[in-house]
Amino acid sequence: MKRLLVYFIRGLLITVPAVVTAWLVWQIFVSLDRLLGISTPGVGFVLTLALITVVGFLGSNLVTRGLLAAVENTIEKLPLVRIVYNATKDLIGAFVGEKKRFDKPVIVTMSADGAVRALGFITQDSLAILESADTVVVYLPFSYSIAGWTCVVPSSRVQRLDTSSSDFMAFVVSGGVVDFPKLK
What we know:
Blueprint: H1 2-36, H2 43-60, H3 62-76, H4 79-95, E1 105-109, E2 117-124, E3 135-141, E4 148-154, E5 158-160, H5 165-173
Antiparallel strand pairs: 1-2, 1-5, 2-3, 3-4
Helix pairs in contact: 1-2
C-alpha cells in the first residue's frame, strides 16, 4: 500500500506540472486566436510572434525610430497611461535587452551577526546622488511572485556571486526548491 502511495505522489509530481503548463500554453493560444478572430488554433500565436519581430525590426530602423519616439512622447503626456507604460517597459527591460538589471546576483547580510541573509540582485551600484556612495540598491524578489523588496544596503553587507542570473532567479523565485546554481 505504501508503495502505491509513493507511485501516486511521483505521478502527481510528473503529471501536474506538465498538465498545468500545457493548459496555460493552450489558453494563451486560444485567447490570442479568439482576440484576433482566427479559428485555427495557434495561428494567432504565430502572428503575434511575427508582429513583435516586425515591430522590433522597425524599432531598429532609423526611419521609424522618430515615429516611435513621437508615440512615446505622447504616452509620457498621459498621466495614468504613462505610469503603466513605463513600469511595463522597465520590467521587460530589466530581464531582456541592452539594459538588463537582474544580472548581478548577490547575498545580502541582513543581521549584524551575519546569521540572516537574503538573496537578490544589485540594480544600482551606487547612490552617490543621495550622498550614499558606499551603498548599493538591491532588489530582493519574493518567492513564487513577480513582486519583491527594493532596499538600500551598505556595500560591505553585499557578497557578489559569479553565477548564472537566470538560474539564480529560478532558485530564489522557487523558494529554494530547485538546486542552487553552480558558482563559476
